[in-house]
Amino acid sequence: QVLIHQSDNSVSNVYHTVQFNKIRGRMHFHRGYEILCVLKGSAELTVNGVKQVMQQGEFALVLSNQIHMVRNLEDSRMWICGFSTDFLPDFHKKVQNQIGDSSVFTCDRQILQYLQKEIFPYEDHWGDVLDRYKLKGSLYLLCAAYLDSVSLTKRDHSQLDMMNTIYDYIESNYDRKLGLQDVATELGYDYSYFSRLFRKIFTVSFPEFLNNYRCSTAVELIRNSELSLAVIAKRSGFQSIRTFNSVFVRHMGMTPSQYI
C-alpha cells in the first residue's frame, strides 16, 4: 500500500470538500483535519491501522497526521472535507496533543438535516460558494459532536514531533539528492535505529516515502504551471526523466504525459 502525503491539506487557512461514489482511497496523511460522512451505503475507515465500519448517516473525524484510508463496502456515497489546523483554532487547541478512542461518531438528526441542505451540496472552497460563518459554525457543531462521542487521551507527542520533524526536513530538502543516512545524520540518529523508526511511523521505507513526496510535488507543478516535464522532474527532485516516469506511473497509474 503506497503511503501518500496530501500536501493540499497541510497548508494554512484551507477548507475543501468533495463527494465520492464507490470510493477506494489510498493510505495517506496530512497535517489538517478530515471529516467524513457516509451519505449512502457503508464504508470501512482505517486510521493508524485500526479498522472501523461506518454506516449511512455516521461521521468520522481524522486528526492531524493520522495515517488513514477509506473504502466502500457496498454501493456507497461519501462526503469528505478537509480543513487546516488554523481553520477552527479553538478545536485545534483542544485536541492537538490528544487522540480519541474512536474516529467514528454520530450527530443530532437536526444537524445532519441542516448539513444535507446547506453544506453537503457544495463541492467547492468556502471562499467561492459558502458563507464563512455558516460553514465554520457547521464544522464546530460536528467537532462538538465528536468530542461528546469519544474519550480523549494524551497523544504520543514524541512520535508526533518526530513525524513533523522528519517531514519538515524532507519538505526542505526533497529536491536534492537525499538518502536515509543524510536525514539520520542531520537529526542526530543512528542509521539502523532511524530506519526502523521511520518505517514504524510512516509504515513505508524512506525511499518509497521520498519518491511519493516528489511525485506529489510533480503533480502540483503539472497542475499549476506550464513547465516542461524535464524541468518538473528536476524541480521535484528526480535525478532522471526515466526515474520520474517510473515513479509517476507507480504513484498515479499513468505516465506524466498521459496525466497532462
Structure description:
- With 260 residues, the protein is an alpha+beta fold.
- Helix content is 44%, strand content 21%.
- A five-stranded antiparallel sheet has the order 2-9-4-7-11. A three-stranded antiparallel sheet has the order 6-5-8, with no helix packed on it. The chain has a two-stranded parallel ribbon with strand order 1-3.
How much strand?
15-25%
Average of per-residue pLDDT values = 88
Q: SSE string, helix = H, strand = E?
A: EEEEEEEEEHEEHHEHHHHHHH
Q: What is the spatial order of strands in the main beta sheet?
A: 2-9-4-7-11
* Rg from Cα: 19 Å
Distance between the termini: 25 Å
Q: How many DSSP-defined strands?
A: 12
CA-based shape: globular
Largest sheet: 5 strands, antiparallel
Number of contiguous helices: 10
**Portion of residues within helices:** 40-55%
Low-pLDDT stretches:
none
Structural class per helix/strand content?
Answer: alpha+beta
What keywords describe this structure?
260 residues, five-stranded antiparallel beta sheet, three-stranded antiparallel beta sheet, 44% helix, globular
Per-chain topology:
Layout lengths: L3 E2 L9 E7 L6 E2 L3 E8 L1 E6 L2 E6 L3 E4 L5 E5 L4 E7 L5 H7 L2 E3 L3 E2 L3 H10 L13 H18 L2 E3 L2 H17 L6 H8 L3 H12 L3 H19 L4 H7 L5 H12 L3 H4 L1
Summarize the structure.
The chain contains 10 helices and 12 strands. The chain is of the alpha+beta class and 260 residues long.
